Amino acid sequence: MRIGQGIDVHAFLEPGSANHIMLGGVEISHDRGVLAHSDGDVLIHALMDALLGALGLPDIGHQFPDSDPKFSGANSMSLLASVVALMDQAALRIENLDATVLLEAPKLVPYREAMIQSIAQALGCEQERVGLKATTTEKLGFIGRGEGISAQVVVLLTSDPK
Q: Could you tell me the residue range of the domain that residue 31 belongs to?
């Protein structure tokens, strides 16, 4: 068994800067984009770091440096596919994933099932193995002031019996 954890944070841009954010590979309606080199999907970024940690590999900043123009505006789900390939090469699979998104707005309840489905499909696992929660910080700190968004993910990988 291998355990990994990942955390990611992105600042929100000014109101009216966008019509959506990406979370878990799903487009979520919101009037503020995020400051990011890629599509800024904090949930997928935290997931990739958790997977890389469980694999004993360097973080996403090393794998997909923001100094490399080829990753500018990158689709995080495509980057995740590269990390999943590393997991497959190591003959490991998702046993369990537990994720928490921290933000004041937008509310994620209408998008939760789509995010779970998107993540499970990308990882090649059953939806029951993907836990996803959202919480606020009760108006405290940069998240509470609506200045940004964060995600935390813990994964448990086990040997793939293939």
A: 2-159
Q: Is the pTM of this model over 0.90?
A: yes
**Regarding beta strands 26-29 and 20-23, do their DSSP bridges make them parallel or antiparallel, or are they unpaired?**
antiparallel
3-state SS class at 152: strand
> The domain that contains 125 carries what CATH number?
3.30.1330.50
Does a cis peptide bond (omega within 30 degrees of 0) precede residue 58? Answer: no
Task: Name the domain count of the chain.
Answer: 1
Span 43-90, pLDDT tens digits: 999 999 999 999 999 999 999 988 888 888 889 999 999 999 999 999
SS3 22: strand
Read off the tokens for 81: 């596919």
Amino acid type, 28? I
